[in-house]
Amino acid sequence: MTGMDNNNVLTSTQIVIEEALRKLGYGDDMIELLKEPMRLLTVRIPVRMDDGKTRVFIGYRAQHNDAVGPTKGGVRFHPDVNEIEVKALSIWMSLKCGIANLPYGGGKGGIICDPRKMSFRELERLSRGYVRAISQIVGPTKDIPAPDVMTNAQIMAWMMDEYSRIREFDSPGFITGKPLVLGGSLGRESATAKGVAIMIDEAMSKKGIAVAGSRVVIQGFGNAGSFLAKFMHDAGAKVIAISDVNGALYNEQGLDIEDLMDRRDSFGTVTNLFKDTISNEELLALECDVLVPAAIENQITASNADSIRAKIIVEAANGPTTLEATRMVTDKGILLIPDVLASAGGVIVSYFEWVQNNQGYYWTEAEVDDKLREMMVRGFNNVYELHTLKKVDMRLAAYMVGVRKMAEAVRLRGWV
Ligand code: GLU
Asked: Is residue 332 annotated as a catalytic residue, yes or no?
């Protein structure tokens, strides 16, 4: 990702935040406060590598705003992590929490590293080192981390253990996305995908498309992408294409998802096992009912938006469509379900996990699923209603719904 793209991610978010706040009747002071995170911590983490040498990793934690409650959001391990991206991601977390009506503001963290090239023990030392470095500004009632790109339940377990040691008491509510035996919630691992599937249901019913027999294209086969492929397959849809960083697989009759799930590695790589692949660019241009970008930022841009032939785009990744592309696909009549709504399932079940940790009382998977559906559908209806009522595109509508509670909380606290 280039520096310019990174700038785009933050500046385009700021443009929509400003538009949303103005439409809600707020002035320059509120915009000035909410256009950037209130806090950004940069840390240098020394890690003893397996070869005996110490490597210093750079990490971040951004907290957008805590007027509503503690901040919440994942930690990503990726070579492209940078300050601007982490800032934008923390703002998106605020919007997700706002849309889902969770008692949180947004936060996000990241470490510049490539976990695919690190050993298990090196990853453990890095995860623990990160928690030591940020421990002053996080905690179950301050800022609650979770998994994100290339982090998982094992990493959450190490982080929770490190935090509990520092504080000298068991602190399951410090982090979510934990393994079940350490206070994780049933349904958390597949929650983002389940939420996306619910959004696909809602969008399809608005467009009069039946799920059974529909054609779905998914870019990315990580946590969200692979579980979603399975859910859509189980619901009777044909998943005609999936992709990873190396390329894409395409079969008009529908791919064998169970087989692909079995053969992918823990980072979602599977296409390298096949000879007959197409490019990610070709995948995005396939004719289909639903296109789900479930990989990384800036995938649908002004240069390829014209070639998109989906009826619905559901953004499972954070920031996959640029602002200009949003306008272009909306003008083409494509129904776009924006990231801050579509991918809120992860943080919703994280919230359930935190509630269960605080209560010390654990729910069944059916309870989790029912509550997730209820919250996602309510979020969808609020956004869709505003979109039709105020004649604003789905992204602006989602931002308006997402930021209004936070702005109100800021005003009531007397900060602005
Ligand atoms: N990283 C996920 C997201 O971007 C989940 C965050 C959370 O569960 O707190 O929404």
From this structure: no
